[in-house]
Design a protein that fits this description.
α5 packs across α16 and α12 runs parallel beside α14. The longest helix has 15 residues. α6 links the parallel β4 and β5. The strands form three sheets. This protein has a seven-stranded parallel beta sheet with strand order 5-4-3-6-7-9-8, covered by helices on one side. Strands 11-12-10-13-16-15-14 form a seven-stranded mixed beta sheet. A two-stranded antiparallel sheet has the order 1-2. The protein is of the alpha/beta class and about 475 residues long. It is about 35% helix and about 15% strand.
Length: about 475
């Protein structure tokens, strides 16, 4: 059977000729994936199939490896995964042998695809580390090279999290102190370590070229004195704090792009700031008397065994904690003060509650609206600001966000309704604390850092039921 590209009439039975076409069309590996996806999606509108005739895939791969270095089989497999995962409506694309296009498409290949980044996950044995690993395994530009866990060093990752037993090639868990040389050779390191431990580790990596996404609170607060006040110990790397960029992706993209150290936002602050920042910036709500009633699943407390989080302690009940003194309060206030942008400090009434569920955050936020402002104005502002944001959705009508509807996803659902008290409105915001509130947003930050499309590896739909 003659090998041919259906729908375009491009035929050839000579592998060398086809390899030359590939070489001409794509001069480097950095010029391939995104523009091809865009071209196929916008112009082809049909399934692309490459037929190989009687030749095996191995033979064709060998031809391409000889004629088109540095392509290798693993490179093409990653490229095929990229097409399968990211091209809407092309779930059965077959691009195993050659990437062929007819004449007349010059200039379409201007976007870039960087080779897979080598990734380190520090603190991989916790819930955020496991969630990060789950997401990165589906990311076409991420290659897991280092997984650390102090108490589980030397063990296979699947022995800690059996759901990963199907992956045979994950690196063994190691101690951070034994892994610095490997971490320094990575492109990006995600730090999923307890608060107060990340600063010293990042300071040791300061002279390397590895980029950092820190999921702890160690670099979120710009004022190191405020950090000491809330976390009970002096900041161990104050010289690095000035270089840290707060990674609320929807509001800080340009700074994130230029940074090397990203402070990934906390879960509660993410769910609070996404609806409140645009309303404060637009001066539609008062910065005074903002009340945030927040509820979270137990994974927000981490995986370390604690009596307060045993099944019998949590199930069949709900309780408030950290009342008037939760450490996410200054982080929320820092972001809202920046949004107000008039020098006045915003202070909020923030109370979190623990729910008998594994994951999810729901925040009910009570605000005063400005004179002459309606709830419709608030909703229109949110809809307009987030219209082009892939991970923030303002719900239609009176539909209210629910944690079950964002579970396992990087989405934030928001709505705003009129309070029965005149001059007040109620905002409801829901996220998955482990994804948009932690690991998913961390990968979103990585995508921004390395110039990938922001949704790469993150388009999983919410898991319900």
């Amino acid at each position: 059977m003659e090998r041919r590209l259906l729908q375009r009439g491009l035929t050839s039975n000579r592998a060398d000729d086809n390899a030359q076409v590939v070489k001409k069309r794509f001069q480097t590996y950095q010029e391939v994936t995104q523009p091809v996806i865009a071209y196929f999606t916008e112009k082809m509108k049909e399934r692309l199939v490459i037929l190989n005739g009687d030749r095996s895939q191995d033979e064709v791969y060998n031809d391409l490896k000889i004629s088109f270095a540095p392509f290798a089989r693993s490179d093409l497999e990653r490229f095929n995964r990229q097409l399968t995962l990211e091209t809407p409506g092309y779930q059965n694309l077959v691009v195993d042998n050659e990437i062929l296009e007819s004449n007349g498409v010059d200039g379409r290949y201007s976007c870039t695809l960087k080779e897979s980044n080598q990734v380190a996950v520090l603190g991989a044995s916790g819930y955020t580390g496991a969630e990060l690993t789950r997401i990165l395994l589906n990311h076409p530009h991420a290659q897991l090279e280092v997984l650390t866990a102090e108490r589980s060093a030397g063990q296979e990752f699947k022995s800690i999290f059996p759901q990963f037993a199907f992956r045979k090639n994950l690196p063994k868990l190691t101690r951070v102190d034994d892994s610095y040389s490997h971490i320094e050779n990575c492109d990006v390191a995600f730090c999923c370590l307890p608060h107060g431990t990340t600063q010293e580790i990042i300071a040791k990596l300061a002279k390397s070229n590895v980029k950092i996404v820190d999921l702890s609170a160690d670099f979120r607060l710009r004022d190191t004195a405020e950090y000491e006040q809330w976390y009970g110990k002096p900041h161990a790397a104050p010289e690095l704090q000035k270089d840290a960029v707060y990674g609320l992706c929807e509001w800080n993209r340009e700074k994130i792009k230029a940074s090397r150290l990203v402070a990934n936002p906390g879960c509660y602050p993410t769910a609070a700031q996404l609806p409140l920042i645009p309303l404060l910036r637009s001066k539609l709500i008062s910065p005074e008397d903002i009340i945030i009633d927040a509820k979270s699943g137990t994974t927000g407390a981490g995986r370390a065994p604690k009596e307060a989080f045993l099944f019998c302690e949590v199930t069949d009940g709900i309780h408030a904690y950290g009342v008037g003194q939760h450490r996410h309060s200054p982080e929320i206030e820092q972001g809202l003060t920046d949004a107000l942008a008039n020098g006045d400090k915003v202070t909020v009434n923030f109370t979190p509650h623990l729910m008998p569920m594994s994951r999810g955050i729901l925040e009910t936020i009570y605000v005063k609206i400005g004179s002459g402002v309606t709830v419709d104005d608030l909703k229109h502002t949110l809809q307009e600001r987030y219209a082009d944001e892939p991970f923030v959705t303002v719900l239609d009508g009176g539909s209210l966000p629910q944690t079950r509807h964002v579970r396992g996803s990087n989405h934030c659902f928001i709505n705003v309704v009129k309070d029965r008290i005149p001059g007040r409105a109620v905002i409801v915001s829901a996220i998955d604390n482990l994804v948009k509130g932690a690991s998913g947003q961390a990968v979103q930050n990585m995508n921004i850092l390395f110039g990938y499309h922001e949704t790469t590896g993150l388009m999983q739909a919410p898991m319900f039921p």
